[in-house]
Structures are given as structure tokens and as C-alpha cells.
Design a protein that fits this description.
The protein is of the alpha/beta class. It has twelve helices and seven strands.
Length: 289
């Protein structure tokens, strides 16, 4: 059995490789000076072992770019706290031009939290930054943490880059419900896939994820509307492929031709689509007096 990926934390290492590659691009759309160090030798090994390797790095570049864009847009609109779920090797508090008064909270498993503390020791974040070690699958513990954080921020943006895809529908629904029932959690940004693209991505990843017991599985038939059931109203969805084309990161003739097609409205069914989506907490709005 291939053990390059031991658990879900290792998936962050290959994504960091793509961030490092992009940061060294002549016209980089973002700069992450920490990514190569954080990915380490293990990150490179994972990328080389994947069926697609660097062939589809455009998808991760677009994802990072889109999350950056949503974060900066809403911080400018008055977000006072960002809660980053399954933060992995994210370095946004250190590389984005964030206001000093913003509170940024990274939440992840103890092992990766300790790794980030050690690797970025001595580095100064641009905002008030903290790390919290927590297994987010522990539901009562996460609810208690969410409630505590909501006492400190009044206008909170939740981000969960690269998390939802590893959950099943029951787990995703429970997380969405728990988040929406925190009054000050106003917006949520996550990335989702259509049922049509999931098998293609699984093929590109090879057996690395399934062998590690961390397969990608969440691709709701209802698309963004899945989250309406749990208190989240879809506000905006941005395609990763179309974004990557705009950024001039797609070289494949076939992909460029496919990207030129109109995308179907949500739900997209068997149309291969993945993107970054913004949601608004309507439970919060319904309970306001």
C-alpha cells in the first residue's frame, strides 16, 4: 500500500507545492514565500506520485486565488474575524495585506497545528493571528469553540478551503448546520464539486487518497442548493476552470475549448464543474430582532 499520504493533513503538502510553483511564476497571481518550505520533500514526493502530477496545478492556483479574492473583498466590507477551518498549511495571515485589527483563527488537528507553529516560529502575521488545535469531527467540541469565537467577533467570515470534499453528505450537512446556528458567523466560503467531475478528479489523484483512507466523496447533486437545507443561502459561485483561463494558467487545447462553453446553472449534474462558493447565513438573519 502506498503510504505517502498518511492522513488528511498530508494533502496540504501537495497543495503547498502548487502555491510554491505559482509564487515563482514570472507573473504570479499570488506570492507565498513559505509554501516551498512548508511542502518539504514530502510534498514533492506526493505530487510526483499522483497520476496527474503538475498537469492540473491550474485548479489549485485558481482555488487559492479565488479564496484570496473572497477574503479580501469581505474584509474590506467590514469582516472583523476570519475562522479558517482545517487550515492546513495556509499562510494567508502572513502573506495577505490584512488590517492589524482583524482576528484570524486557524483551526486544525494538533499535529499540523504544531508543525505550523514550529515552521513559522518568529514570523509576524499582518493581523491578530492565533492557532487552535482541534479535531473538527468532534462535534460537541467544535460547537463549543464556534460559540466561544462568536463572543469575540460580530461579523465573521468562515473559510474552509479543501475541506468539504472529504466529507460525506451527512458530515457536510452537520457542519453546515452547526456553522449557521452561530449568530455572528455571517458568511462562509467553501469549494465544491459537481457529481460529473468527482470521478475525473478521483482518477487524477490515483490511489493515493483512497489508500490513505481519505477519499474525495462530497459532490452534492443539488450543488450549492444543498446548503440551503442547513441555513446557508448561495450568493456567488466562481468557476475554477474559467478563473484559471482568465489567469492564463490553462495550456491544454481541450480544456480551453471546454472552458469556452457556457456552464449550466446550478445544479450542474453530470457537467464537470468545480468552484469556490460564497454563502450567507440566513438563520442569523431570521433570528435577528
Amino acid at each position: 500500500m502506498n503510504t505517502l499520504i498518511r492522513d488528511i493533513s498530508d494533502t496540504a503538502r501537495w497543495v503547498a507545492v502548487y502555491r510554491a510553483d505559482e509564487s515563482e511564476h514570472p507573473d504570479a497571481v499570488f506570492h507565498d514565500s513559505y509554501a516551498r518550505m512548508l511542502a518539504g520533500v514530502k510534498g514533492e514526493q506526493i505530487v510526483k506520485a499522483m497520476a496527474a502530477g503538475r498537469e492540473n496545478s491550474w485548479s489549485f492556483v485558481a482555488r487559492t486565488y479565488l479564496f484570496d479574492a473572497f477574503v479580501m473583498e469581505y474584509v474590506k466590507q467590514g469582516i472583523d474575524m476570519v475562522v479558517n477551518l482545517a487550515s492546513g498549511l495556509d499562510t494567508r495571515p502572513f502573506r495577505l495585506d490584512l488590517p492589524a485589527e482583524l482576528i484570524w483563527v486557524d483551526i486544525d488537528l494538533p499535529g499540523i497545528t504544531d508543525y505550523m507553529k514550529d515552521m513559522l516560529k518568529g514570523e509576524k502575521a499582518h493581523c491578530a493571528h492565533e492557532r487552535i488545535a482541534l479535531d473538527l469531527s468532534e462535534r460537541q467540541e467544535r460547537i463549543k469553540l464556534f460559540q466561544d469565537l462568536a463572543l469575540r467577533g460580530k461579523n465573521i467570515l468562515v473559510v474552509s478551503e479543501g475541506l468539504i470534499g472529504y466529507l460525506d453528505e451527512s458530515e457536510a450537512g452537520a457542519l453546515a448546520y452547526d456553522l449557521s446556528h452561530i449568530k455572528n458567523f455571517r458568511y462562509w466560503v467553501n469549494d465544491i464539486m459537481s457529481p460529473g467531475i468527482l470521478p475525473l478528479i478521483q482518477k487524477e489523484m490515483g490511489n493515493l487518497l483512497t489508500d490513505a483512507g481519505t477519499p474525495l466523496k462530497f459532490a452534492p447533486a443539488d450543488g450549492e442548493d444543498f446548503f440551503r437545507l442547513f441555513g446557508w443561502k448561495p450568493l456567488e459561485s466562481r468557476s475554477k476552470l474559467k478563473t484559471a483561463v482568465t489567469l492564463h494558467r490553462v495550456n491544454s487545447t481541450d480544456l480551453l475549448s471546454f472552458a469556452a462553453q457556457s456552464e449550466p446553472a446550478n445544479p450542474r449534474g453530470q457537467f464537470p464543474w468545480s468552484g469556490v462558493c460564497l454563502f450567507e447565513n440566513v438563520v442569523r438573519l431570521d433570528t435577528q430582532t
